[in-house]
Amino acid sequence: MPTPPFPPLRLLFWESTVRCNLACSHCRRIETADEAARDDLTTAEFRRVLDSTASLGKPIIVFSGGEPLMRNDWEILAAHARSLGLPTALATNGTLVDGPLAGRIAAAGFRRVSISLDGADAATHDAFRRVQGSFERALAGIAHLRAAGMPMQVNATIAAHNVDQLDDLYALVRKIDVEALHLFLLVPVG
What average pLDDT does the chain have? Predict the structure, then answer.
């Protein structure tokens, strides 16, 4: 009996950089981010990855990180993916997104943007992300992206710090009118 062919690749999550403007409690890279950032793929290297990926089907390329918006070539790479017929999405913490940047993200052709909210209120989220004001800046980023016409998703890491906030988190997500809420369980590593 012949071996069945592999199904086409559906999703490729690209950890585009380890650099980040937050210091999240659950991050495995905080102590090594500056050193590890030197090993981020170059623009040319990732263009070759995209070229190769296009031969595996038409997977959605998710620009992730660290904080992918800290790369200065994310627009070039999104355009290259588009030229290959590869759909793209962006996973960001949202804190860097203002009105003009939201417009650039929309123009880059991302099908959806996800922003992480790791609590239903500022105190919970900010303690987990370890940057005061990150909750309000993430909400502002969502608002800017919605105003730019971007479909939005909220990602939430569920752990002891917020497990009792699920109902409130769901109510918040409905209030800010995003398309999806994706829950992730914390996986200890390192």
Answer: 89
Are 63 and 16 in contact, with CB atoms under 8 Å apart? yes
> pTM higher than 0.85, yes or no?
yes
- Three-class secondary structure of residue 60 per DSSP: strand
Best CA proximity match to 127, nearest among 23, 47, 49: 23
Structure tokens at 130: 């370890």
DSSP helix/strand/coil, 147: helix
Q: Is 169 helix (H, G, I), strand (E, B) or coil?
A: helix
Give the span between the Cα atoms of 104 and 78, in whole angstroms.
Answer: 11
Residue 104: helix, strand or coil by DSSP?
helix
Cα distance between residue 91 and residue 60, in whole Å: 12
With contact defined as beta carbons under 8 Å apart, do 145 and 113 qualify?
A: yes
